[in-house]
Amino acid sequence: MQVPLFFYQIMKIIGITGTLGAGKGTIVDYLIQHYGFKHYSVRGYLIEEAQKRGMPLNRDTYVVVANDLRTTYGPSYIIDQLYLQAAENGTNAVIESVRTPGEVESLRKHEHFLLFGVDADPEIRYERVVSRASETDHVSFDTFVENEQREMSSSDPNHQNIGMCMQMADYVFMNNGDFEELYQQVEQVLGPSPSPSETE
User: What domain count does the chain have?
Assistant: First the structure.
């Protein structure tokens, strides 16, 4: 699929979906640093919501809070809130991470949207998750696999279905190598990163 010309002419929105530890954050950082995108995080949104509710900050909490918000307000509620923030700002934006088909469908209503998916072999992704050691990453390999399987598919439109989101992605990057290999895949889609003055 070739990037449509209009994508370079108006405010751009890129959504990021992908498997656990695949490299979503790496792509986000690259878009920020080399293409001048502003970052909007579903995880950050859920952390704030969990804090408001006095709930522990861990992966299970974020899933519960996200599912509750989607059930109460609609499947695309969280992503829609982040999109509104991005639209108000008016600059190119990357939204991390898209997890339900309803979120993809809502973002597709905006013609200047592309969805990037990222994946890697499970063993590689687990090593990355363990090495980053955030509050949600202290898990065994079996728990890692169980968490992923729980989030990969669902018949409930309000629950996470990363597998379907990956199928809906405009581009899917395999991230089994180093950073440079992943960056090259991104540049094959968006073209070489502009100079700093061009991203201001």
Answer: 1
